[in-house]
Amino acid sequence: MSMSGAQSSAFQAAAGFTPSSSYTLFVGFAVGLTFLWGAWALYSCYRGWATGNLDRSIALPSAIRTVVLCMILTIFVLS
Question: Per the UniProt record, which residue ranges are transmembrane (predicted)?
């Protein structure tokens, strides 16, 4: 659903920026937060595996799931 010309100009007058720039901000924030969470999850898996608290048979699938989830979320947000 797109905005009409009047809605777009009213949004820009009230907010001080265009709707497309707010969309870009939202997408950048969502992708950045997803990758930050993914880095934390991968680091936690590695730390657990390196200290011997997490078995390799659990750490590897968890790391793969994290990477795949980040890819899927990125595709959904960017499409």
Answer: 25-46, 58-78
